[in-house]
Amino acid sequence: MTGSIWMIGDVQGCCASLDQLLAHPDVAADPDARFWFAGDLVNRGPQSLETLRRIIALGDRAVSVLGNHDLHLLAAAAGVRKPSKSDTLDEILRAPDAADLIDWLRHRPLAHFEHEHLMVHAGVLAKWDVEKVLALADEVQRALRGPNWQKALQKMYGNEPANWKEDHKGGKRLRVIINALTRIRLCTPNGHMEFATKVAPGAWPAGLVPWFDVPNRATRDVTIVFGHWSTLGLLVRPHLVCLDTGCVWGGSLTALRLHDRKLVQIRCAQSQDPRGE
């Protein structure tokens, strides 16, 4: 398919905003346009079911990597985790086509690489080059697509181990990969992930840096596209793009065209209090 490619930030169940984005003249002008979604298609917003169905209806025009909220939906469907009060997943879980929706979601990738752009939901560890990211993502993807996918989800919760070792096995290995690709924000300069610190961008304590500023990151020569970090907001550097602009918190839903960095943003009604993130 030869259309332009629009890279889109976290939708989180804000289907009305997604519909406005897809109908925007700059986006709708290309009937062959493709859409890369940076994960977190669902949850916290008011229309998670409609969002999932809308993106599925795009067929091969849509690529979506799994985010932490998408994995949380899978865990809820598997009976591994109960939805919390702030979750908006019940409509999906009760839908007549719930089994098909969950099956589609668990077959999404955790990383997508094309045109020298690597899309993940949250980030990567500094030691991993693109080939390694794709190989490790595939390990998790095979587990989620297999007959024992529910058991794989039981192993993903927790913050440890905080760093990568090649000899990690089983649940530890799965957890590190998932945490890096779907949850990471800050880490130490030597690549240890840190999840307890939640401060405004630039206010992080000494000894912590954004994952993308770790020295000698192996992916620094390709463009990484990610979401997940709404307080960071839109960030566009030569080899780095953050697209989470807090749609569900009353910010914007952001799309960036790959070939020329054309920006389209849709203002969003606040569905959740940012302090609840």
Automatic annotation (TrEMBL):
<comment type="function">
    <text>Hydrolyzes diadenosine 5',5'''-P1,P4-tetraphosphate to yield ADP.</text>
</comment>
<dbReference type="Pfam" id="PF00149">
    <property type="entry name" value="Metallophos"/>
</dbReference>
<feature type="domain" description="Calcineurin-like phosphoesterase">
    <location>
        <begin position="4"/>
        <end position="144"/>
    </location>
</feature>
<comment type="similarity">
    <text>Belongs to the Ap4A hydrolase family.</text>
</comment>
<keyword id="KW-0378">Hydrolase</keyword>
<dbReference type="InterPro" id="IPR004843">
    <property type="entry name" value="Calcineurin-like_PHP"/>
</dbReference>
<protein>
    <recommendedName>
        <fullName>Bis(5'-nucleosyl)-tetraphosphatase, symmetrical</fullName>
        <ecNumber>3.6.1.41</ecNumber>
    </recommendedName>
</protein>
<dbReference type="InterPro" id="IPR004617">
    <property type="entry name" value="ApaH"/>
</dbReference>
<dbReference type="GO" id="GO:0008803">
    <property type="term" value="F:bis(5'-nucleosyl)-tetraphosphatase (symmetrical) activity"/>
</dbReference>
<dbReference type="InterPro" id="IPR029052">
    <property type="entry name" value="Metallo-depent_PP-like"/>
</dbReference>
